Amino acid sequence: MTGTGCKVILLAGGKGTRMKTDLPKTYLELGGKELIRYSLDAVEACDRVEGCILVCAPDRMAYVREQILDRHGYTKVLGIAAAGRERYESVINGIRLLDELEEGCEQGGSGPAGEGILLICDGARPFLTPELLRRCMDGAAQYGACVAAVPSKDTVKLSDPEGFVSSTPPRSSVWIIQTPQAFKRGLITEGYRKLEQMIREADAGRGQIPEITDDASVAELLMGARVRLVMGDYRNIKITTPEDLPIAEEIRKGL
Hints:
The protein has 255 residues and is of the alpha/beta class.
């Protein structure tokens, strides 16, 4: 089962602060290749992805277009959006650019904008695969909202404000959330529109922004959606700190 018009927003705007490097982490090399290219390769290889919006820092946009997209012949990137201060602002900018591009196509006689499935992916996860993209597309088409996730291998403890254990959730109910996170496009677009309005009101001193930790939070908190867990991949790690790179290198060698 799948929807039509599967699009991807690929986030590559991280500053690499926790990587302790001046170079944004998505442009660090793994096996002689920039991290972002692994995700782009998966998008290119997935026959059901029709197009992609790449989100990166404004001062990296020319480099990305010339040295990554044009140089390596990526064809599915429809446009490059500027990253925001926070992750959710980057997603908002990506959705806005996608809507603008498709509205232009619609005026030119193409199909209606805003339909189908939208997948949101971290560019710092180099082991994204076309198969995982397809699983998430199918989950979103069937349930409206889904996230890639893997069962926790460890016992998880919840703490109280003083740092003592307050409870221990059953390990069978604990999942580690990854990306892709996939949604029926109208649902997640409306959720982010609501969030954008809440940001404007908060900036004007008329409210607060809810705690948004991922895209599923937008669907859950602002749209009342039930989010389905779709089996991810334990190899689908996110490069966040220097310790992650040697782990990723071992995974890459084993593929």
